[in-house]
Amino acid sequence: MDNKITKAAAGGVASDAGSATAEELELINTYTRRTLTAGEVYVFTVVLCDNDVDRDGERFTVESLFALEKLFVGKTGIFDHNPSAKNQTARIISCKVENVASRTTATGDEYFCLKARAYLPRTEGNSELIAALDSGIVLTERVKPTAESSAAASLQSHTTHMNGALSRFPLRRTRA
């Protein structure tokens, strides 16, 4: 992926949640043991992190967002704080850094976020989760390393099977 910045609308549930494009279905099937159809997967958008100040007074640099853009593709996600393999629910198929022109950060800077497209299989077991995602009851998890601990270690607690890739990246999170 290149470092092209895309302008997008802010927040909310994506209107494209649920349906996979042909290109997304091709990406999804690179991770599956058999070819899945569009009707067998639920695809949604999640904002993983941004350059705005969080409740701890920290934020990602825009450069770090671009570094993470490349690292998250193919990683699985969880919807709780227990990073067990049995809690893997969705897989990220693409990421991109977006500039939201209508929004600024708490410090007055341009707002950038890292958005991902992820999928999960449409199964009986996932039907309640899909309904909760669509209704806005379940909010997707965001990445939040802290300045006091290793950014890589904190990120690894929110994703699985990172194999140390993040520890080789200089993820800079700054105090506001």
Largest sheet: 5 strands, mixed
Elements, N to C (H/E): EHEEHEEEHHE
Structural class based on helices, strands and sheet pairing? alpha+beta
Estimate the mean pLDDT confidence: 75
User: Percent range for helical residues?
Assistant: 10-25%
C-alpha geometry: globular
Low-confidence stretches: 1-14, 147-173
Say how many strands there are: 7
How would you describe this structure in keywords?
alpha+beta; 7 strands; globular
In short:
With 176 residues, this protein is of the alpha+beta class. It has helices at residues 22-28, 62-71, 127-135, 151-158; strands at 6-7, 41-50, 58-60, 76-77, 90-104, 110-121, 173-175. The strands form two sheets. Strands 1, 2, 4, 5 and 6 form a five-stranded mixed β-sheet that branches. The protein has a two-stranded antiparallel sheet with strand order 3-7.
Can you characterise this structure?
This protein has 176 residues and is α+β, with helices and mostly antiparallel strands. The chain contains 4 helices and 7 strands. Strands 1, 2, 4, 5 and 6 form a 5-stranded mixed sheet that branches. The protein has a two-stranded antiparallel sheet with strand order 3-7.
Topology:
Layout: E1 6-7, H1 22-28, E2 41-50, E3 58-60, H2 62-71, E4 76-77, E5 90-104, E6 110-121, H3 127-135, H4 151-158, E7 173-175
